[in-house]
Specification:
Elements: E1 19-21, E2 32-37, H1 47-60, E3 70-73, H2 77-89, E4 93-98, H3 103-111, E5 115-119, H4 132-148, E6 152-153, H5 161-177, E7 184-188, H6 193-205, E8 210-216, H7 221-224, E9 254-258, H8 260-274, H9 280-293, E10 301-306
Parallel strand pairs: 2-10, 3-4, 3-6, 4-5, 7-8, 7-10, 8-9
Antiparallel strand pairs: 1-2
Length: 324
């Protein structure tokens, strides 16, 4: 008997996320923002897409053997996506994460069956603010575990499956769901995979469509080549990493710098006015989109990603003083 509408696994529930207009936030602006609700993926983030594509590519290319361990450096979202995909497919998964990231992420990965290795921050780092130096420590541990266990390194910063997932799926979804009316796109950059894949696809549909990278204030390594204040609360990016190879051939029309305070305040407005409970990077993306509507995107439609769920930040200052 055919089971119409029943998916084979949670992997098949990844993608085809809703696109929602933020018309209450933009009531005083000339133009619109449309937001892709990536927290509706099984792992509550956009990284589910990249996790699936990286693992399936590795299987197809013979790089990942049955039962082989998978290791990845993560701020939590990629690790959650990999925990889901690897658990269903039967690969032991080890997530290596800085203690500077929120504990909700580590607990969720553990609940999904991952082994989570937490790496202490550097002595001058601030809890909740993962620096480039912190990330370097995590990378060293991830590399050592990969070698010790003869594991497959998912390597979201290098594997082409990361941007490919967004070029093949997220970008086309935004274009189709907006009826081709999107005029601008902006995205907070971590690995650069979602920005690279989506911007390339959208530019192929419309060469005039403006694509902007979003970075944390003080950590604008891509826009300026340096970081005056690399500590910031917007987890998942802005780690002062200059070698983001996915961006080498990605179209970039400009950069938008967003402070941690602005990202936090906008995420709260997004929750209270639009009923969309996103994380720090979602706040940064919407804050950047509002700036674009006040400038080069006036009269247009800006597409953004709500990268992950606010549930992953309940212990951070994003919500702590609001919740009793």
């Amino acid at each position: 008997m055919k089971d119409d509408g029943i998916l084979a696994s949670a992997i098949d529930a990844i993608g085809n996320t809703p696109l929602v207009a933020l018309d209450r936030l933009t009531a005083d602006y000339d133009g619109r923002i449309v937001a892709k609700l990536e927290f509706t993926n099984p792992g509550f983030s956009k990284k589910d897409r990249a996790a699936r594509c990286i693992i399936e590519q590795a299987e197809q290319q013979g790089l990942l053997k049955p039962g082989q361990s998978v290791v990845e450096l993560t701020s939590g979202n990629m690790g959650t996506g990999l925990a889901i995909v690897c658990g269903i497919k039967g690969y032991p998964f080890v997530a290596v994460m800085s203690r500077g990231n929120s504990m909700e992420r580590a607990r969720m990965m553990q609940a999904l069956g991952a082994e989570v290795v937490l790496v202490e921050q550097t002595s001058d780092s601030t809890p909740g603010q993962v620096s480039g130096a912190d990330l370097a420590k995590v990378e060293a541990v991830a590399s050592r575990i990969t070698q010790q266990r003869n594991a497959f390194r998912a390597d979201q910063f290098k594997r082409e499956g990361n941007p490919l997932a967004h070029y093949q799926h997220t970008g086309p979804e935004i274009w189709r769901q907006s009826n081709g009316l999107v005029t601008h796109f902006c995205d907070f950059v971590g690995s650069g995979g979602s920005y690279a894949g989506i911007s390339r696809y959208l530019k192929e549909r419309s060469a005039d469509l403006g694509c902007y990278i979003v970075e944390p204030a003080g950590a604008e390594i891509l826009a300026t080549g340096g970081a005056s204040n690399p500590g910031h609360p917007i987890q998942g990016g802005g780690y002062s990493m200059a070698d983001l190879s996915f961006l080498d051939d990605a179209p970039i029309d400009g950069y938008v710098s967003i402070s941690g305070d602005s990202a936090r305040d906008t995420a709260r407005l997004l929750a209270q006015r639009e009923g969309i409970f996103g994380g720090y990077s979602a706040g940064a993306n919407v804050a950047a989109a509002l700036e674009l509507l006040a400038g080069p995107a006036a009269g247009g439609m800006v597409g953004v990603l709500i990268c992950d769920s606010g549930l992953k930040y309940l212990s951070t200052d994003l919500w702590a003083d609001l919740i009793t």
